[in-house]
Design a protein that fits this description.
2 domains; alpha+beta; Antitoxin HicB; 4 strands; 21% strand
Length: 126
C-alpha cells in the first residue's frame, strides 16, 4: 500500500498529516518530514518504517506557489528561446558555409570558436 504525507507549515514546525492512518505528527525541519511520517505510519500500522512506500508533498503558501509556477513558466520560455536561438545560429552558419567561408571565418563572424562553427555546420550539429 502506498501512503501519503502532506506537510504544511504551522509556526515554527511542519504539521504532517498521514491521511491513510488519519493521524498527524510534527517535524522541525523539511528533512524530518519523511522520517517522522514513516515513524507515525509504522506505529499505526505495525509495518517496518523502511518498507513503507511513501509519497511526501509540501504545501506552500499560495503566494509562494504562484511565484514558483511563474518561475517554471519562465524557464520553459527560456528553454524554447535557447532552442530557437540554436536553430537560427545553425541555419546562419550553414548559409554562410555555402558561400565558401572557412570554419575559422565562420567562427569569427558568428562570435563562436572555429570548433563550434565546425559543429554547427556538420551533419551532427548540437
Amino acid at each position: 500500500m502506498k501512503y501519503h504525507a502532506h506537510a504544511t507549515r504551522d509556526g515554527r514546525y511542519w504539521m504532517v498529516h498521514a491521511p491513510e492512518v488519519d493521524r498527524y505528527t510534527q517535524a522541525r525541519t523539511v528533512d524530518e518530514i519523511e522520517p517522522m511520517a514513516r515513524d507515525l505510519i509504522s506505529i499505526m500500522t505495525g509495518s517496518d518504517a523502511g518498507s513503507i512506500e511513501l509519497e511526501v508533498s509540501v504545501e506552500l503558501p499560495s503566494s509562494v506557489q504562484a511565484k514558483l509556477d511563474g518561475v517554471e513558466r519562465s524557464r520553459e520560455v527560456e528553454r524554447a528561446a535557447r532552442s530557437d536561438a540554436a536553430a537560427q545560429l545553425r541555419s546562419a552558419a550553414l548559409e554562410l558555409k555555402e558561400t565558401g567561408m572557412s570554419v575559422r571565418e565562420l567562427g569569427r563572424v558568428l562570435g563562436v570558436s572555429y570548433q563550434r562553427a565546425a559543429q554547427l555546420t556538420s551533419n551532427r550539429a548540437s
